[in-house]
Amino acid sequence: MEKVERNFMDPIRDVNLAKSKLKFANPFTNFQANMETLFLKKGYILLLIGFLLGRSLILAKLTPFSVPFFAAVYLVRKDRAPLALIGLIGGAATLSVVDAVSTFVLTLLFLVSYKATKKWLKNEVKFIPFYVFFVLLIGSLVEGYIVSGKFSLYELMMAGVESSLGFILTLIFLQGLPLLSISKRRQSLKTEEIVCLIILLASVMTGTIGWTVYDISIDHVLSRYLVLVFAFVAGATVGSTVGVVTGLIFSLASVSSFSHMSLLAFSGLLGGLLKEGKKVGVSFGLLIATLLIGMYGDGNAALLKTLLESAAAIALLFLTPKTFTSRLAKYIPGTLEHSQEQQQYMRKMRDVTSQRVAQFSHVFQALSNSFNHQSEPTEWDDTDRELDYFLSNVTEKTCQLCHRKEQCWTRNFNETYDFMKEIMLDMEQKGGEVSQKLYREWGVHCVKPKKVVEAMQQELTYYQANQKLKRQVKESRKLVADQLLGVSEIMGNFAKEIQRERENHHKQEELILEAMQDFGIEIEQVEIYSLEQGNVDIDMTIPDYQGHGECEKLIAPILSDILGETIIVNSEEYSPFGNDFYHVTFRSAKAYSVEVGVAHAAKDGGLISGDSYSTTELGCGKYAIAISDGMGNGERAHIESQETLQLLQKILQSGIEERVAIKSVNSVLSLRTTDEIFSTLDLAMVDLQNASAKFLKIGSTPSFIKRGNKVLKIQASNLPMGIIEDFEVDVVSEQLRAGDLLIMMSDGVFEGPKHVENHDLWMKRKIKELKTEEPQGVADVIMEEVIRSRSGYIDDDMTVLVAKIKHNTPKWASIPVPQYKQKAN
């Protein structure tokens, strides 16, 4: 009973659910799987190959295949070497008993010599061909001496030829055998490996020379079938190569097969050219080649015979399953199946990478949520708990040993608690002091008022320090949560970008190439990566580039008219491979551009200013303009402001949102040093597609926008960076227009004018009175006006940064090509 229960309760992982369903399996599929297991995995294909190679001849006399094949099998699959040896001896026995004995003796000689000297070999693969060479040389010389009784020149030459062939065949078999004997192969084959495989297969087929069925030569049928398969799978190049190599091997094996090489090469070429016609087209190519070559034969009987052999090869081709040819095509570079396999592999790698990046994004988002939504008590409960802890510590030091403890804390608990709470709140408001009235009232209630108040004053110091520490932890946690969320968003966007495949724009590429050629511009290649509005990305390869600005003056304007938006030259470079090709990248132009002018001066005319500024175009189509004013003057302030801008620039270029970037910089500045060194930051982010701007001001002075005769003021109130660890960044948004002047300045300029009560009105008036619209001129005029107002004395570091918003118009007008514009759209 126990045994029955144990069998009944087998683990579910051992139950094959697939077998419980009705399954109508394909008999051919099962047969193919069984054959693969028998021949490839168990190695019985080596027995068959050995048998055919054992009876293969070169020049109708030499047998150089046996020892190289056995040596290669012994090195590649040592456990299957006995099968190969049995096959070789069996094949040689079909020729003669002497050949069988010779094969056995030579393989034994190879094994003995290899085993005896193996311990001195560092690289076995390199030395195996030399072993084969010397074994065959010695064997041929001994055999010739036994037959003729002397060493003639002819015998020496034949021995040298056979040993040399053995040396070469060993190298070929070492390359080709792993492709047949190992089931898990690489996804693609090198050209050398394909040739080695063909030589191996052709050599095996020479073992069928002399076999006939109804007067049809088996070797002719198999060789033509081999050429048909490779022409059908890989096209004319590989097909003709297989035909030449196979025909050459057969012609060496039998002089009568020399004319057969022409037929195989021609049929491989024609069949590969007619590959688009599938098996019918390849077969038609073989029939044409057979008829053309057969006309030079010996009469109608020979032509009929070779046609029957070709028909038998065609029949074998049609019987070949599609799964076999498709699998073979995956290993040959240049085939459609190989390309699809590579694309599938790359797509899989892309999906795995994207999934990993997305997982990391989710991890960072989860960490951010855990910091944001960490289980905390409500503010009310937290305050009461802190108050209870505070009063508990006070009573432990004062009331614990008092004789009126029970009177105060048992009978009058609420009154005592409220009194002490009121005293603590009063101390917080008055810096540790207690009002006289409250002290007198407490003296009536308590017998040790002074001791209790002193204990509360002492405990209040610890209480406030603890509260400050908790606030800092809370603020730091919130900052970390924002930073993690920013990183999560960046990685999430990156995962989406990875998932975007290169779009198929073959039609548009042809249209652009045709338009350029009709215009007289020679283009080697056009590759379109994106045609998204505002995000066009096109690469071109131009031969014989003269370097006279053709790309900027001709090609970019033509593309601008075809695509309906402004296209500019993004980058140009010569081919790194030393040819005359020139690679050019065209991208969408931004709708707006920014022209910047700056004027700055150090305090007292010094060389180093405490102000720093930065203007940079970020990769996301935004333009950043920033001024930082370090605390004080001189080198220390300059270093502080410069590091602030550099850190901010790196964070913004990574794609993190502006507020999080500024908070991160502030956190670094507030934590990295204990010195009283602070920096202001005035940041403007301009979107170059729609000219919208965001202003983030941290302890900085107002900025101004001059639009015609109007002057707009941009202002926000925040403390300088590094003073407190957490603050809310005020963001002021403004829609800029083409022609606007954005004027930003440090406090040395804004507060510089002497004897001026209202700096806002003075600066607005000076900006409104400007006679120039050129940014550098505006910056110089404002700097000069401020310095003149102080009688030429520079009391503080001064920096004025002026940016002009302009429409981004191309330097060269677009060239109309209406017929292609309609086709492209």
TrEMBL record:
It comes from the Bacteria. SUPFAM superfamilies: PP2C-like. Keywords: Hydrolase, Membrane, Transmembrane, Transmembrane helix. PROSITE patterns: PPM_2 (PS51746). Residues 595-805 form the PPM-type phosphatase domain. SMART domains: PP2C_SIG, PP2Cc. Its EC number is 3.1.3.16. The chain crosses the membrane at residues 44-63, 83-116, 128-147, 159-182, 194-214, 226-259, 280-296. Pfam families: SpoIIE, SpoIIE_N. One of its GO terms (molecular function) is protein serine/threonine phosphatase activity. The keyword Transmembrane applies. PANTHER family: STAGE II SPORULATION PROTEIN E, STAGE II SPORULATION PROTEIN E-RELATED. This is Stage II sporulation protein E. It comes from Niallia oryzisoli.
